[in-house]
Amino acid sequence: MCEPLSVGVHACRRADVGAEKSVLIMGAGPIGLVTMLSARAFGAPRIVIADVDDHRLSVAKSLGADAVVKVSGNAEDLAGEIERIQAAMGGDIDVSLDCAGFSKTMSTALEATRPGGRVCLVGMGHNEMTVPLTSAAIREVDVVGIFRYKDTWPLCLEFLRSGKIDVKPLITHRFGFSQGEVEEAFEVSARGRDAIKVMFNL
């Protein structure tokens, strides 16, 4: 579990997450959830997470999100969703981490973040996006990206050792390593639904 957690840790470093910085996370999949746990470990006092899936949002809430917001995949809903996200935060959004990587999620992050804030692109849902960069530039929102991680394992291990981060609730399914169980595990993972991290017992 250090491998996915490393993505969240690297994202929080790049986005300069810390105490007194409120955080929005777009996407409550496995990477969004480890990013949320990392942001809390880095000291973020308030974290809002947005996703299209009710089950994933309930998991995010159970893992410590201060508020969750259900959004749609429809670009026409963007303005109203940004208002709901900002209301859920109850103040400025200092840092947004897009863990989905689609035009709509990145647009939401860019528009919701306060002037002078920072947006980090974590997810890679689309190779190319159409996003409101001019509006973000006018408000001097910094945009950074990550590709996997670098030099994160010592800190991840320390977070796990100290109990500052508990990744065990993210492991939702375990399978043996027979041919049938391997095939079933990949099917469960591909279906999504209530699966977050699917592990093999070797």
UniProtKB/TrEMBL annotation:
Entry keywords, A to Z: Metal-binding, NAD, Oxidoreductase, Zinc
Names of the cofactor(s): Zn(2+)
GO MF annotations, alphabetized: metal ion binding; oxidoreductase activity
Domain of life: Eukaryota
Signal peptide: none
Residues covered by the Alcohol dehydrogenase-like C-terminal domain: 30-160
Keyword Metal-binding belongs to the record: yes
Family: Belongs to the zinc-containing alcohol dehydrogenase family.
Protein's UniProt name: Alcohol dehydrogenase-like C-terminal domain-containing protein
Organism name: Aegilops tauschii subsp. strangulata (Goatgrass)
